Amino acid sequence: MRILLVEDTADVAEAIVSHLARIGHTVEWERDGATASRRIADSFDLVILDVMLPQQDGFSLLEQLRGRGRNTPVMMLTACAEIEERVRALDLGADDYMIKPFDFRELDARVRVLLRRSGGEATNLIHCANVCIDRKTRSTTLDGAVIELTRREVTLLEIIAARPGRIFNKDELMERLFTVDDTPNVNTVEQYVARLRKKLAGAAFDIRTLRGLGYQLILHAPAETPSLH
Known about the structure:
This protein is 37% helix and 23% strand. The protein has 8 helices and 12 strands. The strands form 3 sheets. A 5-stranded parallel beta sheet has the order 2-1-3-4-5, sandwiched between helices. Strands 6-7-8-9 form a 4-stranded antiparallel beta sheet, with helices on one face. The model has no long low-confidence stretch (mean pLDDT 88).
């Protein structure tokens, strides 16, 4: 999923970016509040926001995001353990709060909770016809058998399988799958979709190309039970 990280401590930010990218997320990193304020309302699946930032603090950025009516999940990070600061963040609209230093296993779990909550799922599993995606293990099964997918293929499938019927244009998929440093193009998205179709032969859905619009996952109609006369 596409995540915005706003953190001014380079070693902390680099560790978070590296870790989240390794498990399949696309992470954009901003180092100061002023730059982040120009991007925070963009289309992100999650914002991870440090409290103490140069030029504009995390509380102000959170207020700005909520003031624009955006309900993007927000996790606040801070080195301060004071209860007043946590209460303030939650009252301003934060969805979660972590105190540094933290264990990356806990970060993973909290990220999964926020992403599945925003998608309306109660567990880490996304079921789409006879395909199941496990957000925790980043694994995919078809009729119970494991399918070998790359991390980006899993992420692409996760995006479209969570919203059957919705049309995703290539620009949106490109933003959610890649960072600006990856220099992707629409042909790259087409290649990933083609690979996914090939690996998911036998799935009870189709990934359709709608010319000029994008891609849409369509579930197969259930087989009709023959009537008895």
